Amino acid sequence: xxxxxxxxxxxxxxxxxxxxxxxxxxxxxxxxxxxxxxxxxxxxxxxxxxxxxxxxxxxxxxxxxxxxxxxxxxxxxxxxxxxxxxxxxxxxxxxxxxxxxxxxxxxxxxxxxxxxxxxxxxxxxxxxxxxxxxxxxxxxxxxxxxxxxxxxxxxxxxxxxxxxxxxxxxxxxxxxxxxxxxxxxxxxxxxxxxxxxxxxxxxxxxxxxxxxxxxxxxxxxxxxxxxxxxxxxxxxxxxxxxxxxxxxxxxxxxxxxx
Length: 258
Ligand SMILES: *[C@@H]1O[C@H](CO)[C@@H](O)[C@H](O)[C@H]1NC(C)=O
Hints:
GO biological process, one term: negative regulation of amyloid precursor protein biosynthetic process
InterPro entries: BRICHOS_dom, ITM2
Number of strands: 10
Low-confidence stretches: 1-38
Strand order of the largest sheet: 1-2-3-4-5-6-8-7
Keywords: Cell membrane, Cleavage on pair of basic residues, Disulfide bond, Glycoprotein, Lysosome, Membrane, Phosphoprotein, Signal-anchor, Transmembrane, Transmembrane helix
Oligomer: single chain
Strand content: 25-35%
Membrane topology: Single-pass type II membrane protein
Subunit structure: Interacts with BACE1. Interacts with APP. Interacts with STMN2.
Distance between the termini: 101 Å
Bound molecules: 2-acetamido-2-deoxy-beta-D-glucopyranose
């Protein structure tokens, strides 16, 4: 309403620009509304300005969106939930139990790229024969530790990099199947370890394994060659843990020499 009144005033005295200036001073909020009709005379330039400004805003928004997407999807350390996976896999044990058909294994996997280690928690299995466990693969120290929860004992051995995928690769594998829940169906391999002696100095195992095994009886393991597997496993005292940190499932049998 006020604007219309002013334009009428301007129309009455078009030669007096000073009147317009006064009105602008009195009612500052009208300033832009008044100036706009004047600017419309040089619309090609202002149009270009508007377009450039709009483009700049749009590009800034695009850059910000890209940064957000990059941080959210490619830098998992930013968001702890991106490091934790609940995994399920179907597998067959074609060597020891070919008639049993498909079995299922589930576990929780935590991948810590910055500290270069993986933590795996295997719950009590649906069918017996394997112990629940917490496992740490410390790539910085080159060690693997199994905490057998049923026995409440810890076992430490050199990390075997042909069985355990490095954290970055495992993370990429799991992030790709995260939405599908199940990993591709796979097979089981067996390995057998034998206890060699007690670990006295726990600190030498590194901070993460130390935290896992602190206050528990901890033993060193050595790998037993596959040719010895003909021995009756039942004769010795063996416990096995089934786990996966690669595209296949591993059964680690931990045996105490009789
Ligand atoms: C690692 O595991 C593979 C497959 O079981 C085995 O053939 C190899 O001897 C192991 N390497 C070491 C250093 O234990």
